[in-house]
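Query structure, 160 tokens:
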């Protein structure tokens, strides 16, 4: 895939997320500093977070209005506002304000899931060292190693 296609994919993903989850991306969140292999993880996480917030708050409103069986009324779940989504040390970092303990668990689960998913393609992957730590499948790790060998050869006047 060429660089232009990567920018198109990124722009489409960012626009889609902002349209699907306008409350979550209402602030200045800084974009998505991750590979497209993690886009489905982020989208699933945001979907689950917003669903949970809506369910808790709608249930609370219904019970405040009509509670004939004296059900316990849940606390309001503050809207999650995304601050930053990025890759760091080969792992997903999802920084936000708001939410509750369940949302914190959802974020931990998504970060764990990403730690075993190739950042480039979404296939099973693992943490790879060798400079910048990345989570990659075997195929993308081999491509990265090949680029590193080519760069080394070029910088040292060697031919491969």
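Result returned for the query:
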């Amino acid at each position: 895939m060429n660089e232009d296609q990567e920018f198109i994919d990124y722009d489409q993903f960012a626009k889609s997320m902002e349209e699907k989850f306008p409350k979550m991306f209402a602030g200045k969140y800084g974009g998505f500093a991750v590979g497209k292999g993690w886009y489905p993880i982020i989208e699933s996480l945001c979907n689950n977070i917003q669903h949970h917030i809506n369910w808790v708050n709608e249930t609370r409103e219904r019970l405040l209005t009509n509670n004939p069986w004296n059900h316990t009324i849940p606390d309001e779940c503050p809207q999650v506002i995304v601050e930053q989504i990025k890759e760091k040390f080969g792992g997903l970092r999802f920084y936000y304000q708001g939410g509750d303990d369940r949302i914190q668990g959802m974020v931990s689960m998504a970060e764990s899931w990403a730690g075993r998913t190739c950042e480039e393609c979404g296939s099973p992957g693992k943490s790879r060292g060798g400079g910048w730590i990345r989570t990659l499948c075997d195929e993308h790790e081999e491509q990265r190693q090949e680029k590193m060998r080519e760069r080394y050869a070029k910088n040292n006047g060697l031919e491969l």
